[in-house]
Amino acid sequence: MNNLKAELLRGLWYVACTSEELKAGKTMAKKLMGEPVLFGRDRHGKAFAIRDICPHRGIPLRYGRFDGETVQCCYHGWKFDTSGTCVDIPSTHEYQTIDYSKISCGAFPVKEQQGLVWVYFADGTERPEDGRQPEPPLLPDFGLDQGPRLAIMLPFVCSVDHAALGLMDPTHAAFVHTSWWFKKNATKLRPKEKHFAPSELGWAMVRHKLPPQNIAYKLLGNDVTTEIRYSLPGLRIEHIKGDRHSVVGLTTITPVDEDKTEVRQMFWATMGWVSPFKPLLRRLMTTFLDQDRRVVIQQREGLEYNPKLMLINDADTQGRWWMQLKDEWTRSGSEGRDFQNPVRERTLRWMS
Ligand code: FES
Ligand SMILES: [Fe+2]
């Protein structure tokens, strides 16, 4: 693992933004995976993503204008449709014939479901259907049209690797997430023992019962259980369900480039009464995520010196799995063979 920069995995779907962020008839420029991408939503409501560079002279297309159907470059007015194909070159004289359809700024496959806009970064020129992850993952218990109740995003000044290691790190909470409203106190660590098993492109903390005396869990009914899945390219899906309601928490890490990352936290809930609590919940979620964000800024000061780092058992075993999964994804891709999940079923123990 390189301390400051991470290897970015391709051939996978990444969360680009929430559906709400992408307004009809508008575009939104973002750098993701080190690539300039111009996201947009056409006037019929369909989301798209094109490469934010004009193939004529390279100026970003975001400086141009979007009429709900085509993006017009600000320099010489070339127009591109939402699939990236050129549809007009204003300087074309009536005596000239130019096949516009041969000119493209490039596009990225986009899929919108459950209130999220996913974008596919191909490995070479393959399409997602022919790739190794044909579809973005679906969250359990919620329909295709059901978006998150709440979504926040904070930019992290660290590579996806450190963002991921923080995300799956069970022992930092007592030291980093210390707020009056959050239980932790570093002097009262308790032994933990959880069972893990391989799952699609990652692993799962196997479904287990949550303490019935906890008031928050009681709201979901009886027999409340949870399962937490971690998967490439940086997703954490927590599915808590009782006999009456269920909640899904999703954390996503999307690389801006090799050393910057967007971290999103969202949740879906079947309970209708969540809405009035949104401002409070938003504040708590932001405080919590901001604690993680600040720690990686401090960590970076040390990483600049390129120290040799450690991953210890069992606290960092999941961090090891993350690195092994990434490695296997890259290796299986370059060898042209199926991905073989390196994670084996086992129990992990730590104090937290
Ligand atoms: S640079 Fe875009 S049209 Fe010329
Ligand atoms: Fe954290």
UniProtKB/TrEMBL annotation:
The keyword Oxidoreductase applies. Keywords: 2Fe-2S, Dioxygenase, Iron, Iron-sulfur, Metal-binding, Oxidoreductase. The keyword Iron applies. InterPro entries: Cholesterol_7-desaturase (IPR050584), Rieske_2Fe-2S (IPR017941), Rieske_2Fe-2S_sf (IPR036922), VanA_C_cat (IPR044043). One of its GO terms (molecular function) is metal ion binding. PROSITE patterns: RIESKE. Pfam families: Rieske (PF00355), VanA_C (PF19112). Residues 13-119 form the Rieske domain. PANTHER family: 3-KETOSTEROID-9-ALPHA-MONOOXYGENASE, OXYGENASE COMPONENT, IRON-SULFUR DOMAIN CONTAINING PROTEIN. This is Aromatic ring-hydroxylating dioxygenase subunit alpha. It comes from Stappia albiluteola.
